[in-house]
Write a structure and sequence with these properties.
The complex is a heterodimer of chains A (118) and B (230). Chain A is mainly α. Chain A folds into 2 domains: 32 residues; 83 residues, Up-down Bundle (F1FO ATP Synthase). Chain A is built from 4 helices and no strands. Chain A is elongated. Chain B has one domain. Chain B is built from 6 helices and no strands. The chains are: A mainly alpha (118), B mainly alpha (230). Chains A and B meet through helix 3 of A and helix 5 and helix 6 of B.
């Protein structure tokens, strides 16, 4: 309970600190008339997005590996099957972070709002 | 990405403007697979040695996978499709590790060209095996006229889930290959010689595992479509 409260309050404080930075970038872009605001936001979004994706992946794969090690410790004879299942499970979880990475790459390099910005 | 331009060996033979890199390298993968098959066919023996042994290991592993999941009746029909996908993805991924070549599976079009036929094959074989009763697969566990709202809801959920399958198959393989490629490029600029080699070792593992995962998922989707019970 305490950890949840601390996590939520930290997120709110972080948002409160970063908000003026966003508005500063937008004001500067409006003054210049370019689309640097899009790229600033894109860099921020890519970094935070992949970071959060990697967070979930790390937790999930850690739990999977620990259960696999426990299974091997209980029954060393089945270690071949357990290792195979572990590798397949890790590939499944990793693919979720890869989806986050693909979205980050699309935002950074494919510029989906190209026409709107010209 | 324009600053990180690679020169490839194929540029000497085929113009990359006319035929994109993924197409020419996919053709190269096909040529490699056919050549290996022809070489083995010429000197085939009962107790395998060398290349025939290696290919037989792969074929037997995929045959076990298919038999275990799909069963004997449809396993024989679906096995060539699944094994071809596995070998194509395996050779395609490993081709990306060799400097001077690029992986055809690092392009989203090649992966979509493999995932969409898997999707279409699931529905084709499902309808062929079950007929019109194939729609029962989408309607969930309760199948009486009184549970009509539940059946409609389950149909919508299963529809979206089925649409997500080729998308996730494509993006999983594409993301893994392009992430490995970009990571190698960026690390080669930052800290050359030693660290990119460790990433290359990880890349070998990822290439083989992703080929197996694509094949395993394709097998499980086809098995779910042609299963007899339920």
């Amino acid at each position: 309970m305490k950890k949840t409260v601390v996590a939520i309050s930290l997120t709110l404080i972080l948002l409160w600190v970063l908000a003026p930075l966003c508005f500063a970038a937008e004001a500067e872009a409006a003054a210049k008339g370019s689309n640097v605001f899009y790229y600033a936001m894109a860099a921020l979004a890519a970094g935070i997005g992949v970071g959060i994706g990697a967070l979930g992946c790390g937790l999930g794969q850690g739990v999977a590996t620990s259960k696999a090690c426990e299974g091997i410790a209980r029954n060393p004879g089945a270690s071949g099957k357990i290792t195979t299942s572990l590798i397949i499970g890790l590939a499944m979880v990793e693919s979720l972070t890869i989806y986050a990475l693909v979205v980050a790459l699309i935002i950074l390099f494919v510029n989906p709002f190209g026409k709107l910005l010209q | 990405m324009e600053a990180l331009h690679e020169t490839l060996l194929m540029d000497a033979i085929i113009n990359p403007e006319k035929i994109p890199h993924n197409v020419s390298h996919a053709f190269l993968v096909c040529i490699i697979l056919i050549l290996v098959a022809l070489v083995i066919r010429k000197s085939i023996r009962l107790v395998p040695k060398g290349t025939q042994n290696f290919v037989e290991v792969i074929t037997e592993a995929i045959l076990n996978l298919v038999d275990e999941n799909i069963g004997h009746h449809w396993g024989k029909t679906l096995f060539p499709f699944i094994c071809t996908i596995f070998m194509f993805i395996l050779v395609g991924n490993c081709m990306g590790l060799i400097p001077g070549f690029t992986a055809p599976t690092a392009n989203i079009n090649t992966n979509a060209a493999m995932a969409v036929p898997v999707f279409l094959a699931t529905h084709y074989y499902g309808i062929r095996v079950h007929g019109i009763k194939y729609i029962y697969h989408f309607l969930g566990p309760v199948r009486s006229i009184f549970a009509l709202p539940l059946m409609i809801l389950m149909f919508v959920v299963e529809f979206v889930g089925h649409l997500a399958r080729p998308l996730t198959l494509t993006v999983r393989l594409f993301g893994n290959m392009i992430a490995k490629h970009i990571l190698l490029l960026v690390l080669a600029i930052l800290a050359p010689w030693i660290i990119p080699t460790s990433i290359l070792a990880l890349g070998v593992l990822v290439s083989v595992v992703q080929a197996f995962v694509f094949t395993l998922l394709a097998t499980l989707y086809l098995a779910g479509a042609v299963e007899e019970a339920h």
